Amino acid sequence: LSPGTLRVQSGPIHKAGLRVPADSRTYLWFLAQEANIAWAMLRCKIRAKGPMRLILVFGRCFPS
Question: Exposed/middle/buried for 37, CB within 10 Å: 0-12, 13-18, 19+?
Fold first, then answer.
């Protein structure tokens, strides 16, 4: 795929590179950009399982 394109397929394609377990309230705050990711992680509201660099771009996948 060229940069800026998206391909959607049915079912799992690859193993997830990042898992973000969080309670629903914190997760929604994060997605709405009302909670700082560093604050949430320091208070164990959000835990990233995978490369930390991916958590920085994760929020951009869900613009508010």
Answer: middle
